[in-house]
Amino acid sequence: MIIDLDKFIEEENIFWEELEKVLRISDAEPGHKMSLEELKRFHYLYERTSAGLARISTFSAKQELREYLESLVARAFANIHENRRSKTKFSPFKWFFHTFPTTFRKYIKAFTIALLIISAGAIFGGGAVYFDTDAKQVIMPFEGLKKSPTERVKKEESSKGTHLENRKSSFASHLMANNIRVSIFVLALGMTFGVGTVLVLFINGIYLGAVMADYIMAGQTKFLAGWLLPHGSIEIPAIIIAGQAGLLLGSALIGWETPVPLGDRLRKIGGDLTTLIFGVAVLLVWAGIIESFFSQYHEPVISYSFKIVFGFFQLTLLVLLLSISGRGKQQI
Amino acid sequence: MNKTNKLTIRTPEGITFSLFPASPVIRLLAYSIDFLIIITLNMFVSKIISILSIFSQDLAQAFSILIFFAISIAYTILIEWIWNGQTVGKKIMKIRVVDKNGLNLRFSQIVIRNLLRFIDAFPAFYLLGGISSLISSKSQRLGDIAANTVVIWNRNVKEPNFEKLFSGKYNSLREYPHLIARLRQKVSPEEADIALRAIMRRDGLNPSSRVEIFNVISQHFKKITEFDEETLEGISDEQYVRNIADVLYNT
After folding, report:
1. Of B95, B118, B153, which residue constitutes the final position of a domain?
2. What is the pLDDT of residues A20-48, one digit of tens each?
3. Could you say which of B19, B104, B187 has the minimum Cβ distance to residue A82?
């Protein structure tokens, strides 16, 4: 209990004003760096104001004074208890070749489940087209895919890559933006306890399986491999990694057999989700470039064998990146 | 978090303070401002990029698609990171994103809460996010729940000048220090606040409402502590409430 409130205010007001001034500077210039002496003073002012708030809290009147001190303490608290990492220089190279694959491996179980889901969808889609040719009209996501594969191959081979003349760059940009948008959506659907992520992965698997079955049944396996592998070897794993992130979010929400509270579970995976989705974005930018500038060229412009080898080469590099890169080094 | 929609933070020093979650409507207004900025920014950048079409129409279109996508995603992420949880819209509406524990935001929190707008906006017009904000005790949309963040009023309360409000007037209640002590003991901070706010807003009230309001408040305080009739003689309800606030706030 404060006996003489007026005297208390008179004595402390100067410190509150000083703290307010520091906070004003901090708000106006978020990047403002304090010297050690300034930091010590700031900490002292925060502790003194906090102590004042504790004393005033026991006093029934002066509601507005308490609100004023609470606002000062709340603003100072966020600055004093800095929870951002110290500003070490960010290295994109280290991040991509160390942090990203390390994070991926940490949640390999979620990736495996995502892979199984998309594979189940592919088997379902492929089976549907194989056993019921009419299913193709219902399943295929684009009008172009509903046509005969043989006709499409004939048309694209005769065009000699001119069908994308003067629109390759915009096509690549469109692919990148669209695929990244889909990946973010797959991640975000983790908020449905992972159900939405599972559904989107399964549906995409159906499309993939149906297209593959359709081309294989039409005897266009080599065209299919040459068309899909160069970009698909990166794009499909990227979507599965987005699914991995979505499932991770979903499992954190569910929190099986763990006494950790929801907030802490989500806090724990926050950084890893960010790493995974940024990694996915990088992969999809590359896949977009390849799809637009390479995948769309067919024989006789580029031989299918070369495209298939290129696709497998990329897939090998991706597998190496995700399975080996960053092993045995200290985490950044 | 208590029932008055207030987020109470207890610091390691043992001090408690409150944060007040911003209402979904205010947040929607803030986002509308940001959305307009994003559109304007995109139009401006598109105009500049259109110069590229002199060299290549394809390249200009490609840049246009990518930059529109990048701005619509990166704007809120970058600005919230640079301005510690605020964007232009949030600054105007005086709100801020903070960590659920009252701390500054980490980069991953900003990224997650903004990327999850995709699900909050589902199926249209932020329906899912809006429903989540209305149901959540901390007015959190799904992105906020996943990122452990809360959007709060960015209160910048000025120290009130009580002396100015009551100065220079004789207060007959001060003749009875023992009754004043009893009054201070019995009156809650909320009751004292009602008296103070009534005085501060008296000029904004029409005469009949003013008489009615001060009558209700004075009757309430008269029940709490009874001063003798001689002391209260000739004092209007408004003056009585003013005297009560004076002895409560000015020690």
Report:
1. B153
2. 999 888 888 777 788 899 999 999 999 99
3. B104
